[in-house]
Amino acid sequence: MGKGKNNNRHIEKKILSFFRENPTKEYNYKQIAAVLSIKDTRGRNDLIKILNMNVVSKELVSPSKGKYKLAQTKKQYYQGRLEVTSSGRGFVICEELEHDIAIPKNAINKAFNGDRVEVYCYKRKGNGSLEGEVVNIVERSKIDFVGVLQIEKSYAFVLTRNARMYTDFFIDKKQLTDEYTDGDKVLVRFSDWPKKAESPYGTLIENFGPPGETATEMHAILSDYGLPLHFPEEVEAAAAVIDQSITKEEIKKRRDFRSVLTFTIDPKTAKDFDDALSFQQLGEDLFEVGIHIADVSHYVQPNSILDEEALARATSVYLVDRVVPMLPEVLSNGVCSLRPHEEKYTFSAVFQINSKAELKNEWFGKTVIYSDHRFAYEEAQDIISSGSPVVSEEHSLRGASYKVDQPTFEAITTLDKIAKNLRNKRMKNGAISFDRVEVAFNLKEDNTPESVFFKTSKDANKLIEEFMLLANKQVARFAGKREKPLPMVYRVHDEPDPDKLNNLQMIVAGFGYKLNLKTKNINQSINSLLLETQGKQEQNMIDTLTIRCMSKAEYTTHNIGHYGLAFDFYSHFTSPIRRYPDVMVHRLLEQHLNKQKTASIETIEEACSHSSQRELLATKAERDSIKFMQIKFMENHIGQVFEGVISGVTDRGLYVEIIENKCEGMVRIKDVPGDYYFYDEKNHSLVGERTNKIYQLGDLISVEVAKADLIKRHLDFTFATTEE
Length: 724
What we know:
With 724 residues, the chain is an alpha+beta fold. It has 17 helices and 36 strands.
């Protein structure tokens, strides 16, 4: 009896799925029986009963005797983007609906994570929330996937090992040339998913090599996010023939800064120098500070092959062992780069400012400069920290101690003073200060990690940061702060998510910290929290949780201000070598200064949206490369014990971040000793069933490194034997 009921439910699902795929058509029971291959009398009688039941439940209607069609009492079909969870279920984000549409595992119907899909939607029984079934794939978000090749006798599969990818790809044996071996990491392209096939068919595109090797994994990371590794030959050719000469004719069109003291301050490994600072004293407490930015738009003309490639990429990608530039190297590291002792074309924001950071005047325009010095951050920091013009041998790029001239010394120390006042003003206005520690690696010749170190932002870093922020802000104000705003690309940042802030408030309260959400100045309350946690074992975790509360910054023509920086107007103007929106800002600013017509708002907005999406992909790739290097580093530490902080709690176990190197791994819930533990979602903790022992965010524990899986990019920890 039970079996019969289950079978009827199965048939009912098939019937409703068929009608949803054909929502406007009418069918009689014979036509439906043919579709379902029901040929016996009993089966047909059951079919008629099921059809009539669904007419009663109003899923179907009967327009005429013996005919049935889908009920259309309300809109039931929506389009949106599918997100697949690691459990195999999904949900569709639809702009028309306030809430997402839940998609059961068996209703995803061959759609992939990120696809734009059409969904048949119905009310879920019980809570009335929306549930649906994918009935059409409108657009695939991606067709190229990275996985591991598994070769059998007569066929092969590519195992994607992606938590959001619920299927593997079938590979015809004919594709397996001598270059492919079992276990290789490969790029596979989705080709087809036949109706009766359990798995999609794929075409092998590229072999990255043995998994776990640095080169293999970095190439795989880039390909997985659709980020190009090389430039097309025609793009490289176009870059190679660019006129690199500095001509008298062009100089006449520009403001000449070649005789003004100018220098760059960058990371010691930098090759592309976007920005330079010039400095001269105008009066007793009045200085002219020039922020000179590489004039990429002079060399990269709109709609050229170089421009199209730069837009497609939209950003440079910074992996641990390499930079994948937005522009070919001849531009990024050569003609556009503000290298020392070379004349360069620049686009500049020039300010008259006093030591209190009070702005007296500003000027924007095309310039030509000559950089007198190239400083690493460490060299400039040495000068600032010591209050001396001597750069020590330890921090010198020259390999020996040296002394800068007095004008340069005075320029650096004065700029530092102004920068600190600029920063203080921002903080008073409500800017949020994330002084996060960044993980970096010392690499061996083969690009494997030798050691881990932390990058911290010191005064020299903040000096550059503040003047770049000033230029970006004032360029945006120039276009936006007027009765009829001029078209501009803004970098906007919305207010934080209130629900996430409430959640953060509850979490930090468990550590004895306060987050006042009732005040008008929530940003100042957030700053107080971040300041209070500095240097504490839970700092990194609370910084991370706070960042997750924040909205994502993005590019748009519609200004709403920048919450995190507390600016009413903000743009990106200062890094056109590595960000396409900055190139757009340069073009728009030049057009406004020359009173020329700009591209349509729709065209600009489309480029903004694309750039925001590419930035997100680049960020994910960068994170993946760091994660891989951390696991690669921990391979040599299997069995060792480290102090760690619980950085996340899930129903699967505890995420633990090692204090010494910031590497994060998991202690699975079954491996937590001493009791059977269950997940308390409300309090973000694991609780012992018998002992009531609690493990929660921020707890300090000792863990042993059990496994470093380079393929899955996962670290497994167990409790150290001393832990109870």
